[in-house]
Amino acid sequence: MIKVLELIDGGFIGGGQIHTLSLSKGLNKTLFNPVIAAMGGGVFEEIVNDSGIPFKSIYQPKILRKKYLNPLLEFCKEEKFDIVHSHGGVSGFYGRLVKKYYPEIKTVHSIHGIHYINTKNYIRKFVSQSIEQYLVKFTDYSICETNSDFRNAKKLKIINKDKTFIIPNGINLGKYHNLKKKNPDFLAKLNLKPEDFIVGNISRFDVQKNQNLIIKTAVRLKDKYPEMKFILVGNGKLLEQSKKLAEELNLGSSLLFTGEQLNLLDYYSIFDTFVFPTFWEGMPYVLLEAMACRLPVICSDIPSLKEIVKDNYSALLINPQSESELYDAIIKLFTDRKLMNEISRNAHEAVKNYSEYFTIKKIEEIYTGVMSE
Predict the structure, then answer these.
(1) Taking the chain (373 residues) in consecutive chunks of 10 residues, what is each chunk's mean pLDDT?
(2) Which of 56, 153, 179, 343 has its Cβ near the most Cβ atoms within 10 Å?
């Protein structure tokens, strides 16, 4: 039995957390014994505990101090983990340093997007890259979600290209097969009508996710198309700022902020289109989920997303800086239901390539491979 610590930093529900839990639940339990470690006291801990996967609260601040690393070192020594699999930059820092102190432990690191390359803070960029380069020697295998991340990681010298695998994220496709559309009870709960055309987004509120583009575009659409409504699902550090912008622009009942929600299928079921104007990404779960829900998607014209969707076929691609492009794309779908149906059908077909079953099997092969070395 191979004992694996799945390590991630945040206590919230994001793509990395969804991936970590999906992987832990799906691993062959006759071969692998997974434990999840993350910040405790949040929604993520509750969901992990409900799943039956053991959970350990480990605080991982972005600025490392030995006192924060020590609890992880003690836990790894006590539990005698064979593999520490870190997910994302912060946990990659802590997880791979375990090998510095316990060289016998195998380390696998998943890159869920290389976010610091998008910062305008050059000192932060230099420091982050230097740390990642240093950690390569404590990494047995790396995993990238996309080809674009692999190319960037190789260029930045933060991976050993000969010990790095490209494994796309996957979702439980069966979860979305019988999705009931436009549940009238749920619509009524949100003060919406079945005839409303609902533009939806599900993301945490920060600079990367770019919800303000949706808000600014909604101002131009709400008067011309009063039946058009906008729903933004999620929490985050910029939520209050976005609410203030919507208030200043007098969007009123045309735009609904829901906060963080666990019943995401209910929201996907009432959306007519899913808008995702992110500035950068790894491989986002919400995009795959929207496609699985047969939603026509409007998303950013960035390399990682272009590996998943094809413009004017399985999505409409836009410049995430352009209000006019988003405006035109929404109207294009709103006024052409045949196009909506074609894009949603093609997206649903394309997402069949992203089953969590294949993702988990490939990671299992990495685990057994690293243990044989």
Answers:
(1) 96 89 97 97 93 96 90 97 96 96 98 89 91 97 97 97 97 91 93 96 96 98 95 96 97 96 94 97 95 98 97 98 98 97 97 96 98 92
(2) 343
| Domain 2-170+355-371, classified CATH 3.40.50.2000, yes or no | yes
Whole-angstrom distance, CA of residue 160 vs CA of residue 98:
19
* Helix pair 89-101, 66-79: axis angle to 10 deg: 60
Tokens of 56: 């350990």
What is the enclosing helix (H) or strand (E) of 61? Answer: none
Q: Is 167 helix (H, G, I), strand (E, B) or coil?
A: coil
Dist CA 56 CA 121 (whole Å):
33
275: tokens are 């808008």
- In the chain, list all ranges with CATH 3.40.50.2000: 2-170+355-371, 173-353
Query: Phi first, then psi: what are they for 183, rounded to 5°?
Result: -60, 115
List of residues 6+ apart from 241 with CB closer than 8 A: 205
Percent of the chain as helix, strand, coil, to the nearest 5: 50, 20, 35
DSSP state of 65: -
* Architecture of the CATH domain 173-353: 3-Layer(aba) Sandwich (3.40)
Residue reference for tokens 């102190």: 101
